[in-house]
Request: fold
Amino acid sequence: MSAVPESPPRSWAEIDLAALRHNLKAIRNLGNQQVMAVVKASAYGHGLEAIAKTLDHEDLTFFGVANVGEARRLAEAGVQTPIYLLGGTFPAEREEVVACQWLPCLNTMEEAEHFDHLARARGSVVEAHITVDTGMGRGGFLPADTLPALLAIRALPGLKVTGIGSHLPSADEDTAFTMKQFKSFDTLIESLPERGELTHIHLANSAGLLGYKSRTTTLVRPGLMLYGVPPVANAEISLRPVMNLKSRIAVIRNLPPGHGISYGRTFITTRPTKVGTIGIGYGDGYPRVAPEKNAEVFVRGRRVPLLGRITMDQVMADLTDLPECSPGDEVELFGSNIPVVEVAHKAGTIPWAIFTGITPRVERVYSG
Reply:
């Protein structure tokens, strides 16, 4: 019996690893600081292990992850770059953190004292950073409480504080507040005793890297820019998109005027229309863009409009002006020709949500 041939993917995300390295270089050109590559949420949907293995050779200071599950996956993948936990940990997770020597950020004295207890029970010392809440409201010590906390934590024999960081809630939206935040963070750092023990001082995310300067920071935490998307409009940085989301035309049909397309019949043809049905939908993570937002896709070198509502597994496009199209043709949903920022805007969301929403049934295909 002959082998069953394997069909090509119905929809796929092309991940350009050369573009990833290009973006990291562009980020480094913004200033002489250490880099923590933020690879949480499966590297923003690009594939945690593949992205981390590529960046593991790029002399990074840390990989930033959201939780111990992601840290464990990186460890199991064999990466050598130290792993940093960007958020608070559950009590039941902390023994694994200590055993694996991942770096936690400390948000409360309860966390610090528990880590100290677990480390001393193992006869080890946990390296950790202190988080300061300068406006995010999500975790960390308030600025007025930071010095007492630092002194108390330094007195715990099972902990070694090697860094301190905070987070910017609105660097892409509120310049005045962000400048004030940088100033207050720098002032706080400059007031701390034995500051030389704090090897890693960090505040800037991707948006914080553009247009802001710190007197004290030594480390930056790029996320979105690594994947080729500037976090603010008109950013003066050369980035290349890492992900191109693609599918194929499955069916092409000619419909008469007055024919409805998709659920709710929100689009009715007004002319003889050549309609292509494309094998991707919101079940793959392509957002359910409202029909009136005029979303487009890229086919045979041209943009064409989508028609009607996005469905779970398929979308329809107007191919009337592309008579050469045929079933099997590739379609770009976003990437080099349709910016993900444009898709996000038309869907009423943000690029982060688009990337992380691409579901597992979309195969990731790596190159570069």
User: Anything to note?
Assistant: Residues 24 and 226 are 6 Å apart (CA to CA). The longest helix spans residues 175-191. The chain has a mean pLDDT of 96.
